[in-house]
Predict the structure.
Amino acid sequence: MAEAHTEAAKIRDSARADAQRIVAEMREQAEREVERIRQRGEEDLVAQRQQVIRELRGRIGELSVDLASELVTEHLANPANRSATVDRLLDELAAMAASTGEGAAADAGGK
C-alpha cells in the first residue's frame, strides 16, 4: 500500500511539473503573440499616418490652387485692378529690359 501511495505521489508530482511547464510555455507563446500584435499595430499606425499626410498634402495643394484662382479672378474682375496689373507688368518688363540693356552696354563698353 505504501508503494501505491508513493507511486500516486510521483504521478501527482509529475502532473504538477507538466502543468507548470505547459503554463510557462503558454505564457511565453502568449507574450510572443502580444508582441507580434503590438508591432503590427505600430506598423499599421505608421502606414496610416503616412497615408493621411499624403492625402492632406494633396488636398491642401488643391485648396491652395482653388483659392489662388478665386483671388486672381476676383482681383482681375475689377477693370481698375486689371489695368493696374497690366501697367505693373509692363513696368516690370521695361525695367528688366533696361537692366539687361545696361548690362549689355557695360559689357560692350568694357571690351
